[in-house]
Amino acid sequence: MRASRVLYAAISAVAVSAFAAMPAVAQDAKSKTVMITIENLTTGQPFSPSFFSTRAAATAPLWEMGKTAPANLVAVAEGGNIGGFSGDAAGRIGKDVGDAALAVHTLPGQTRTLTIHVDAAHPMVDGAWMLGNTNDGFSGFTGFDAYNLAGTKTLDVRGYDAGSEKNNEKKGYLGALGAGNDRDPENGVITFHTGIRGDADAPKSWNWDVTKPVAHVTFTVIAGGSA
Q1: What are the chain's domains?
Q2: Residue 23's pLDDT band (boundaries 50, 70, 90)?
């Protein structure tokens, strides 16, 4: 059991520090600047800082449904810590990673907007953020081809369970309850989240309709040549 993890409310400074060290993305003549807007559709789930990166089509995504969550995703899903993803991208920009960007917390009903660059070598965009009032819930997307996007496209993204920690919804394990953020390991795989039951310490008001999206993610090409 890990006794202490970085509280996601303090992650922004850590992530920005790692992100600031990233070299500027090299833009070719046909690179595109894409605006990404996240809208939190929930009423009881704040989103942690969110991380986005572009990659080569042959490069593995940040996460995959039905597979064991990688360590960087576990850090996001259990504690809202995007620092691992950010630091990893910093060492790979100009290779199989083209660019990376982040947004601060997105509270229920809020939107956040950022820009990212894509090119022919790095057309795919992945993203991830924590569902803040869960044990190991997160949301995001993988493999969106923004380089071949013309105009605007909106994705409906659902809530996911990293499968790394049991959803016990108890004080001492669910950090949002304010009594610690210890681990209760599950050793599962990434699946759709089943929501907040409300039968332990977490209030039922944190739940959402698990058959519907928790966020709209809208991509808009704002600059760049044609693919």
Answers
A1: 8-21+30-224 (2.60.40.2130)
A2: very low
| Tokens found for residue 187 | 């050793």
Neighbours of 73 (CB within 10 A): 26
For residue range 80-101, list pLDDT tens digits in order.
Answer: 999 999 999 999 999 999 999 9
| Cα-to-chain-centroid distance, residue 69 | 13
Name the residue among 50, 66, 169, 59 with its Cα closest to residue 104. 50
Instruction: Give the DSSP letter string of the chain.
Output: --S----GGGHHHHHHHHHHTSPPPP--TT-EEEEEEEEE--SS--B--EEEEEE-TTSPPS--TTSPPPHHHHHHHHH---HHHHHHHHTTBTTTEEEEEEE--B-TT-EEEEEEEEBTTB-EEEEEEEBTTSSSEEEEEEEEE-TT--SEEEEEE-EEE-SSB-----TBTSGGGSS-B---B-----EE------SSSS-GGG---TTS-SEEEEEEEEEE---
pLDDT tens digit sequence for 194-226: 999 999 999 999 999 999 999 999 999 998 854
Locate 223 and state its tokens: 């600059």
Reference 105, options 38, 179, 165; nearest CA is 38
